[in-house]
Amino acid sequence: MSSGVNVLEDLTANFRQELARFLVPEDVARVEAALEFSRAAHDGQFRRSGEPYVTHCIHVAMILMDLLRRRTDPVILQAALLHDVLEDNLNITYQDMANRFGEEVTQLVSVQAGTGGPRLQVPRTGALPPDRRSGLDQAGGA
């Protein structure tokens, strides 16, 4: 199990370095708060590989950061880090998360998890502004 802890510590250090490259310090602090919350919420949970479960959440956030680069949004990273918390930790409620991280983050987590929180209103493709539609028309969207 110590190798799983080492993997987590190495991954966390790498994640923090990447955060500093793409986000301003205030946003880094917000994302790090979500990281620590996720680590605590998944404490004692392990993947089949033996690694701490939270490594999955960090990997998801890192993939998004890699894809988004300079357009990295702290809300998206917070939601990525927290995406399994409502599902996997029944002691944490939608309202607990909303109080701590805000409605936008919590709605993203809730919609992904299907936990029945307030429904996120997603506009139809045709309602998106033109700058947000890039690629949708070519991919068979609206």
List keywords for this structure.
single chain, 142 residues, mainly alpha, Hypothetical protein af1432, 7 helices, 60% helix
Spans where pLDDT lies below 50 across 5 or more residues: 119-142
What is the number of strand segments? 0
Broad structural category: mainly alpha
Helix count, DSSP H or I runs of 4 or more residues:
7
Q: Let me know the largest β-sheet.
A: none
And the CATH topology?
Hypothetical protein af1432
Query: What is the H level of CATH, i.e. the homologous superfamily?
Result: Hypothetical protein af1432
Q: Which of globular, elongated, flat, extended, rod-shaped describes the shape?
A: globular
Write down the secondary-structure element order.
HHHHHHH
What's the N-to-C terminus distance? 50 Å
Mean pLDDT: 83
Can you tell me the CATH architecture?
Orthogonal Bundle
Q: In brief, what are we looking at here?
A:
The protein has 142 residues and is mostly helical. Helices cover 60% and strands 0% of the residues.
